[in-house]
Hints:
This protein is 46% helix and 18% strand. With 130 residues, it is an alpha+beta fold. The chain starts with 12 loop residues before the first helix and ends with a strand.
Amino acid sequence: MENLIEYLDESLVPLEEKVKEYLHVERDIRLLEVELLSLQSMKPDFDPEQNLEQHLTNQQPQNTLNDKEQKLKELLEKYGSLQQEVIRMLPEQNKFVELNLGYGPSMVGYFTVDPETRTPLEEPVLRVVH
Length: 130
């Protein structure tokens, strides 16, 4: 990095705020998944090998989801939309942008090519390094 305070650029503030919101939702999803798995493990028919997302989408109609499962579904939808918003705000693909997420320089980037092997990725990836 040529300019050591480049990540403090005020034009990056909207992107920073969106990335912070994205990370907050990601954290909420993880906490809720743990809570759901804990609750499900108390059921007699619990199968630990079962994928939680598959359980939500395939086995229960939407109108019978309990409150926590419904909340997880909403968070996953919000997470996906935030991811798309962050991607649209990034100036270019396959390159990190340095941001200030409140504790020094952090980086965010949207990658369609693996940075180490230079091979195309099956699915594009949003990476946040903080």
